[in-house]
Target: Cell division protein FtsB
Amino acid sequence: MQQLLSLPNIPRSYTALAEILASTLAIVQIRRSKISWSTWLMLTGFGIGQFILQFLADKFYIQFWILGILINVFWMFLTIFSCSRRSITVLIYQTSKTFIIAEFLAASAWQIVCYLKFYAYQIWRPFFQAVLMFLIYSLIIWLLFLLQNNDRLRYANLNISKKSAWNSLVIAMMIFATSNLGFMFKQNSLLNNSSSIFMMRTMVDLCGLLLFYIQENQRYEHYLHNDLIQMNSMFQSQYEQYQAYRESSETVNRRFHDLKHQLDVIALEQNSKKRLSYINSLRDDIKQFKSDVKTGNPVVDVVLTRKNAYCIEHNIIFTCIANGKLLNKIDVMDLCSLLGNSLDNAIEAESKVTDPQKRLIDLRVTKKGNMVIYSLRNYTTQATKLGSNGLPTTTKKDHSQPHGYGLKSIRLIAKKYGGTLTITNKDNWFKLILLLPLS
Model:
């Protein structure tokens, strides 16, 4: 019985196949675009190279066993780098994780095949053995793909800090060392046969994979926490701007009240030069306040008036047809964030348009059926790429600062009030449409 359950070493060809499949899984998960035929061809070439390296490593003396492993791991690194072109931190993390996946894949599949050999000898023919190994590999890879095929883990796999990258490398080394301890202590009473050794190796590799997935979930939760802090800060900032705008509007009203008294003074002034000077001064003052916008909603009026004043000052043509009463049910802070963030993005885009005649922003707040339509469009000369989340990818080069939270907050507002957010960029017009139910 003991002899029948003895497990031979994993053939090098199966180890190479496990490494190729694990590398392919990593490439599929971290690439944003569809894999082209040229990439598949390159991946095939690297796969052939993996088989050759494993064959050569099998010829090494036992003293150079570790060297052979390092060479194969480095080849996996080159495979992922050549087919994905990611940052060095992402590559280190993915290679470490891919190596553990390959170890788990090879050990678990080989164990299953060997146990089937024990219970059904006819399956142990070379052809059926190869087919069975490939089927088990495919099933495990498919399950791992389904496990990681979501936005949470995709973000966690693409946003790797230097600390996380080096931690993953240390974890991979510790998992590999622990999983192979059994081969060094075969005389131990608990590990006195190859079946126990392979069982230990498979379980340790599985624990290593679980450790990687736990870290990825923690990384994503940390991202969500920071995301929430940034959006709350943006909500507060827009609300504080609204408070400042409202105070400014009150100052304007007082200023117009003072103009009445100044007109009385001008009427009594006998000196024509002084009277003309007063009149010119009044004209300058009035010109500053000609941006007044009335929509029927005091919050909307204040924000749009200030944004319109900014547009006038910077030669941006801002047209607005808005029934502000349709937005009465939206919370003040949410409304400030919606108006402030959407208009700030549009104004920033127009500031990059060189032709003043093409600096155009158009806002419409209308009703259609039982829906409120908040439509904002602006002319743009830049092509905007939309990410997998439906939001534009940032064009800012300074990635140390948070970007894109304005549109994320608008989408959050849409979900909060049971609506939808649609963003398009077509024929030089960037368009944001927010649909909200009236009820």
